[in-house]
Design a protein that fits this description.
Helix 8 crosses helix 9. The chain has 3 domains: 42 residues; 205 residues, Rossmann fold, CATH 3.40.50; 175 residues, Ribosomal Protein S5, domain 2 (2-Layer Sandwich), CATH 3.30.230. The chain is globular, with a radius of gyration of 26 Å. It is built from 11 helices and 21 strands. The chain is of the alpha/beta class. The protein starts with a strand and ends with a helix. Bound molecules: thymidine-5'-diphosphate and magnesium ion. The site of thymidine-5'-diphosphate (TYD) has 15 residues, from helix 2 and helix 3.
């Protein structure tokens, strides 16, 4: 007979305890314990039922790499590592309103070769239909199921035997036999485990949508991320049009890949050339603007960094950075003071990465520092110059990764000169490039190049 019991579960790591704790003894997070009622079932469920497996020689096991199913979406396929793997569980996480449901429905509507089961546990069937209308699809082969009960979802999936099941979202479905409400640690964990088991048995791939909590992690226990095969983060600034799909865990591919989309009135459009979006060529040149050759995952980007330096009105100068780490900017300002002799102590400094992008690639340093100086001196940086280089504390320009790709991208976009770290010159095949490549060792050298 099943027995109900109250436990306290850490919402961060899933640690269970009989008493409430202020601080989780397992992961060390504060205030994460929530009370949950669990029904322990007879041990039969734990011992995975019948169908016990015997070991097999690895050499005799076939590999169904060809079993990848194309999603007919270049960006999504790229991030997955070449299409959906049969029987895999893909979790898409992201903030509310970023476009997770749109991406999932769009993918569902593009699938070929069978029906797709779209399970909506959040929205009504007509809401799903309205979204499909926006996407300009008649919804031919897609079945919609508005259901929160996991057992029925899996029964229906078994009956339809679709090429793909979408579950929107893992936080709103519930497994029978557990008394805790949807979205709790034990529900999320139980649902994900049962779906995983079902997917592996039937070879049907699942796309699961997960909400994100205030820290930017997928809500629910960390174990959710351990259960699924692939975790994709869907990010972007709601006020801007483009979105980045980033793979943070992938059992079947690299986690370096990113997909870039643009949110249009009729759905998410793949972006082949992101730099075009991020560079504003129609505004007149002005001081404080420079272009950095950065990388996002494995893709090169050219982004504009904009700085504004003005005399501080109040006693304490203001420093603000959008899309760039403020502490790093302060460090770069200190380097500027010390190495280039610029008095910035009485200046307000504002920095902005155009397009709302957040850049953590250290190669943007050189561009940041050049923009600040350009604004401070009110001297424009010539159009057609791109910059790449990390700036060290003594003002040295440190080498950056994937320099060829950065140069290639700048050249492709019609830039005429790129300033790169001297240490990146070794092994660089200069004959491959038509763009002028200027190596620099120190920030002073870069400034001489830019400002004469
Ligand atoms: P949605 O997919 O519902 O986000 P999520 O599931 O992550 O909460 O979409 C959110 C936003 O996208 C919504 O504000 C409207 C906008 N949108 C478009 O701009 N174009 C479209 O074609 C669609 C379907 C949505
Ligand atoms: Mg949604």
């Amino acid at each position: 007979m099943a027995k109900a019991k109250t436990v306290y579960v850490c919402s961060n790591c899933g640690y269970e305890s009989a008493r409430w704790n202020g601080r989780c003894p397992s992961c060390g997070e504060w205030n994460t314990f929530t009370e949950e009622t669990v029904v322990r079932q007879s041990p039969s469920r734990a011992s995975s039922g019948g169908g016990r497996q015997a070991p097999r020689p690895l050499g005799e096991i076939g590999c169904n790499e060809q079993g990848r199913i194309p999603t007919h979406d270049t960006e999504f396929d790229r991030v997955l590592g070449g299409g959906l793997v049969r029987g895999s569980l893909v979790l898409i996480g992201g903030e509310p309103g970023i476009g997770k449901s749109t991406l999932a429905l769009q993918t569902a509507l593009r699938m070929r070769g069978g029906t797709v089961l779209y399970v909506s546990a959040e929205e009504s069937a007509s809401q799903v239909k309205m979204r499909a209308n926006r996407l300009g699809a008649d919804g031919g082969d897609c079945l919609v199921l508005c259901e929160t009960a996991l057992d029925n979802i899996l029964d229906q999936a078994r009956a339809v035997s679709p090429v793909l099941v979408v579950v929107d979202s893992i936080q709103t479905i519930m497994a029978e036999g557990l008394e805790s409400s949807p979205g709790t640690v034990s529900q999320v964990r139980e649902c994900a485990t049962r779906i995983l088991k079902f997917a592996k048995e039937t070879d049907i791939p699942f796309i699961i949508i997960g909400h994100i909590n205030k820290d930017g992690n997928i809500a629910g226990p960390k174990v959710l991320e351990h259960i699924v095969d692939t975790v994709l983060q869907f990010e972007g600034d709601q006020h801007y049009f483009y979105r980045i799909l980033r793979s943070v865990k992938n059992r079947f591919g690299s986690t370096f890949e990113i997909g870039i989309y643009e949110m249009k009135a009729d759905g998410l459009q793949c972006v082949d050339n992101p730099s075009r979006l991020l560079l504003s060529d129609d505004v007149p040149p002005s001081s404080g603007i420079s272009v950095a050759a950065t990388m996002e995952g494995a893709r090169p980007f050219l982004v504009e960094t904009q700085a504004l330096v003005s005399s501080a009105v109040y006693g304490t100068p203001q420093r603000s950075a959008t899309g760039f780490d403020l502490r790093r900017m302060n460090m770069l300002l200190a380097v500027l003071e010390k190495r280039a002799g610029f008095k910035l102590a009485q200046k307000d400094v504002f920095l902005n990465i155009a397009g709302g992008l957040k850049v953590s690639d250290p190669a943007i340093d050189l561009s940041v520092i050049s923009s600040i100086l350009s604004s401070n001196m009110d001297v424009e940086i010539e159009r057609g110059i791109a910059l790449a280089g990390e700036v060290g504390l003594s003002g040295e320009i440190r080498p950056v990764n994937r320099i060829e790709q950065r140069i290639q991208e700048a050249q492709k976009l019609g830039f005429t000169q790129i300033i790169i770290p001297s240490n990146n010159m070794a092994g660089l095949d200069l004959k491959r490039f038509t763009i002028e490549i200027t190596p620099v060792r120190k920030v002073e050298e870069a400034f001489r190049q830019l400002f004469g």
